[in-house]
Amino acid sequence: MQVPFLNLKAQHDPIRAELLASIEEVVDSNAFAGGPFVAKFEEDFAAFCQTHHAVGLGSGTEALWLPLLAFGIGPGDEVITVPSTFMATAEAISYCGARPVFVDIDEQTYTLDPKQLERAITPRTKAIIPVHLFGQVADMDPIMEIARRHNLYVIEDACQAHGAEYKGRKAGSIGHAGCFSFYPGKNLGAFGEAGALVTNEQSLAEKIKVLRDHGQESKYHHSCIGWNARMDGIQGAVLRIKLKGLNQGNAARRAHARYYGEQLAGLAGLTLPSVAEYGLPVYHIYAVRLKERDRILQALAQRGVACGIHYPKPVHLQKAYHSLGLGAGSFPVAEKCADEFLSLPMFPELTPAQLETVVQEIKSLLPLAKNLEAFSA
Ligand SMILES: Cc1ncc(COP(=O)(O)O)c(C=O)c1O
After folding, report:
1. Residue to probe by mutation, ligand 1, list 86, 156, 188, 283, most atoms within 8 Å of CB
2. 267 has pLDDT over 60
């Protein structure tokens, strides 16, 4: 049996007619860039995230970049984040001229380790970007407490955490701003590129709305230098429909994670993801850890089970950041995890037979892990 890593067709087929009808509505009303479909989605998404405001944008990367600009962060400033993330988190910091400063992750939650945060703060630090990696919220209470004491902004990278919770509060609603990506494979995915920023601060929401639209306060009156970071009307319409199924999709992901956890528990050499007692994760990614990761990945692929690696190289070791001078050994937990992470198939529509196949193949391959070269092509 083939088990794909992700199956968007299975997600869209049951709501295909509704999705296509909503796209037709956009076409009929010519509301392609921003406009009423985006505004309606913003209202629904703010309510979903338990925030006063949501601002639709062109991508998650823009959702991270624009609040840094809005807070006046630029050259000479430092912004703290983690090396275990997608490149975009650090890119957004670099793109406003500031310097990314990394803090290692906690080995249980794979998110920013609050115990290591304070020693990374300098007089130049302006903000912290915790990343809710794989759909588990970072330990926000100590992060917010340290930020308050040092007068720092907190921008949550919730690009993988739509609907995840921390002590009953939604991801993205705890810091000054929360950033979401609606890249097609995300828990809430668009039909192309899209993102959003959520916040409880009206002044920030207003600033982001101006920045996303070339700095326009009103048509052709530009009060600042902005960018074109608007969400497409078609994405707003599609996301509004898909948002209705997000809670159900997240619940299915949690059920699949429970099954993986029960079936794979106690296997020698395999570390399962742990759930922090403070949170409700949404398993954008279900990442296990194992020493012979690359061999198992290849052998699973040969047996029809498609897995992934998120991410094979931490950001501080990327060529793009060589200039920071952070070599191997700088962030040992992030580096070890990058060598060991293996993302198993995870999407709401996984069938019981597919789940069972993944489990059986891992159980049969794991004892052979050391000798798996025999399986290599
Ligand atoms: C943690 C994280 N941050 C930022 C981004 C960037 O989002 P986008 O691809 O929508 O620009 C992503 C998406 O891949 C992500 O996973």
Report:
1. 86
2. yes
